[in-house]
Amino acid sequence: MDLGDFAAEAYGYGTGLDDLIQHQEVGLRRTLFDDYAHGLDLEKIRPSDADTDYIDSGDVPGIMETWLHARSDSHDDIGPCNLEQTEQMISDYIVGDIEHLITLSDRLPFSE
Fold first, then answer.
1. Are 34 and 53 a contacting pair, CB within 8 Å?
2. Which of 72, 70, 90 is nearest to 81 (CA)?
3. CA 62, 27, 57: angle at the middle one, nearest 5?
């Protein structure tokens, strides 16, 4: 099921997930970097235009690449990374996204 089709029907084409969350007044759960002792060098791994204090989808590739290298026996570390704390942070981010999707799917069909 694609929530985007239902969102477009209720709120117009191009309604993104964050917009849909706001329209439906779903409590947005953010995963804040400062809540974890991840040890990541955020200046190096985040997109150059990133300016939030929480993880968003654009941050995931840099975090995951650093984490994968840090836990691999066959690759050198590419930056500092506290494995346990980074794993918890990513898990919390993923669970938060899934919670939003479940809450939104329970509200179908959307109405203005």
1. yes
2. 70
3. 15
Q: State CA 103 to chain mean position distance.
A: 16
Q: How far apart are CA 50 and CA 29, in angstroms?
A: 18
pLDDT digits (tens, 9 = 90+) for 71-98: 998 877 799 999 999 999 999 999 998 9
Contacts of residue 28, defined as CB under 8 A and 6 or more positions apart, other chains included, come to: 18, 21, 100
Contacts for 15 with CB less than 8 Å, ≥ 6 apart: 4, 7, 8, 23
Cα→Cα distances 66→27, 50, 102, 108, Å: 30, 17, 29, 38
Tokens of 32: 């804040």
pTM value? 0.81
